[in-house]
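Q: Here's a chain of 283 amino acids. Please give me its 3D structure as tokens.
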Amino acid sequence: MLKYSDIKGLSVISIANGSLVGVVDSITFKHQENVIASFVVNTSDNKKLELNESNIIGFGSNAIITNINPAQAREYNGSDDNIINVDELGDSVVTIEGEIIGNLISFYIDKNTKSILELKVNSNNNTINIKGSDIVCLGSDFIIITGDYKPAENTSEIKISHTETGYNGRTETVDKTIDKKADFYKQHDLDLSFESGGGSSDVSNLYKEFSKEIENTVDEVVFEDEKINAFYQKNKTKKITKDIPDYNGNLIVKSGDVVDVKFIESVLNYNPQLFDIIEWFLV
């Protein structure tokens, strides 16, 4: 099994005369077949040749062997109504029932059958594996699949429980869903009183008010992810003792930050795996 990105750049060698034909630039498929139709090869003199799948007799991790003489290979003329170049594939994956699953990340080729073995799809920041045999059509806008696939749960949302007081004075615990990516002024169901006290339409100011409202009204915050919820319940109000930067030197969290809802959300937006490191530096 080879990842497509590992196929690009493979040497193509002719068994007819032992010469280097060139290196793989891309591959093509027929729209309704998941088997490679041809290899597009860049030559040393900057030509693009197209080698049919039937001309490939060896497909390895280091090189591809063809039985065609380079002088007999035809020039590549691009995709047409029957053939699509992988580099022109649409990245949206949709079921035959019309449900969007997510965006294509990569795919893997079976070296023996020269067919797509698996698609990897990003669905709401989760990876879903799609079997190659479930591909119905490879298109320039969409990849259509069949099978019992559903989009992953939206991890950009956090569900919380908090206590509300109704008009009759009764209190009850209710569930709310916060979309971390939405503008906070749209979260009307949280009954935030931004207008009182001169609330601003600036998103950063709204976020401060939002956080303050959550801290004042939430009795028990329950995050949907069990691991994140356990981290919060164990460490809420603790402080971090070390600056943690990203690869570019920008601070993800800084010394003195307190574990609260806002802190949890900011780390979730960056990388949930960071919680394992943060826990080492909490007091």
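Q: Can you summarize the key feature?
A: The first strand starts at residue 2 and ends at 3.
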